[in-house]
Amino acid sequence: MTAREAGALEKPPASLLDRPLAYILADHDRHRRACEVLRRIAKGQPVSQACIGVLKSYLADDVARHHDDEDEVLFPALRRRALPEDELSEVLLRLERDHRESYAILQDILNFLDAAATDGDVAVTPTVAAVILRYTAREIRHLAIENAVVMSIAEVRLTRTDLAAMSRLMKLRRGLEP
Ligand SMILES: [Fe+2]
Ligand SMILES: [Fe+2]
What we know:
With about 180 residues, the chain is mostly helical. Helices cover about 80% and strands about 0% of the residues. The chain has a single domain (about 5, about 15-175), classed as nmb1532 protein domain like (Four Helix Bundle (Hemerythrin (Met), subunit A)). Helix 3 runs antiparallel to helix 4, helix 3 packs antiparallel against helix 6 and helix 4 runs antiparallel to helix 5 (about 125-155).
């Protein structure tokens, strides 16, 4: 991972929280970049310890925060506003289940990255590579559904009031003044 790639995993600017859907989309881009880096690790390409640190902190903290933004803020707002013809109920249940189920495999990856950081070596075994590639495949599919279906419907259905409430809640979660 290069310094530029490590920078690409930085949080979106706090000012973007004024546009909560744009913030979530920026988080999706960030997650896609993290998955690209993980896939390169799975292929045995060299990664610096500093970059492992950035990736670890992203996976350990920011992924859960993003899930909370969706499970506690975005999805409830959509459940209130979506129309039956949007057929969103099952999609949201599946995405929430994906979030819950992702933590076990994510923990396996974090354990590997911890060991790699300690040893100064990120040599991957075939088993670890398979775990990483299974995680990234699941996440890329999850992102595709969120961007193509959920975010598209959110753009149409959520009102200005909904977006203001989302913005406030997402700022509070981050300890910022709403
Ligand atoms: Fe998401
Ligand atoms: Fe999600």
